[in-house]
């Protein structure tokens, strides 16, 4: 059985046929299709301070051991893989949206990065990666008097 969204407009504003246009609109905006088109990578916030860059990834439901962080030249890759076991799962879901099995995100690092000063912390579903800057790249603040 197919569900078809019928036009609710009373005025014919479409040039060809409003029914045909609405059928195609509902086909591509239906939640069934949009769920398949959603990217399966976590959202990220990138913050720059005077001394470091900070990447924050929203990755709930994972453990610290699931993450792999690699730095290769000027590219940092953050990935995770969670082994899903379906043993003993008696629930039948109507819709299941949150199941990160694996993802990989890569970011290009600028030249001012200190590669020896990279730390990662995972708490409350947020992975925070702090990437320090080189000493010569840190701008010292000072006040300048106008004469």
UniProtKB/TrEMBL annotation:
<dbReference type="InterPro" id="IPR008978">
    <property type="entry name" value="HSP20-like_chaperone"/>
</dbReference>
<dbReference type="Pfam" id="PF00011">
    <property type="entry name" value="HSP20"/>
</dbReference>
<dbReference type="InterPro" id="IPR002068">
    <property type="entry name" value="A-crystallin/Hsp20_dom"/>
</dbReference>
<protein>
    <submittedName>
        <fullName>Hsp20/alpha crystallin family protein</fullName>
    </submittedName>
</protein>
<feature type="domain" description="SHSP">
    <location>
        <begin position="35"/>
        <end position="147"/>
    </location>
</feature>
<comment type="similarity">
    <text>Belongs to the small heat shock protein (HSP20) family.</text>
</comment>
<dbReference type="InterPro" id="IPR031107">
    <property type="entry name" value="Small_HSP"/>
</dbReference>
């Amino acid at each position: 059985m197919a569900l078809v969204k019928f036009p609710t407009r009373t005025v014919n504003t479409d040039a060809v046929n409003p029914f045909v246009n609405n059928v195609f609109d509902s086909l591509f905006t239906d939640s069934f299709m949009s769920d398949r088109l959603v990217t399966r990578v976590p959202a990220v916030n990138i913050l720059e301070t005077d001394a470091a860059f900070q990447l924050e990834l929203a990755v709930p439901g994972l453990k610290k051991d699931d993450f792999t962080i690699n730095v290769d030249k000027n590219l940092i890759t953050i990935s995770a893989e969670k082994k899903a076991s379906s043993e003993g799962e008696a629930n039948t879901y109507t819709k299941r949206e949150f199941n990160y099995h694996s993802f990989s995100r890569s970011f290009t690092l600028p030249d001012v990065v200190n590669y020896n000063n990279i730390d990662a912390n995972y708490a409350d579903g947020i992975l925070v990666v702090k990437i320090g800057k080189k000493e010569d790249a840190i701008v010292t603040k000072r006040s300048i008097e106008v004469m």
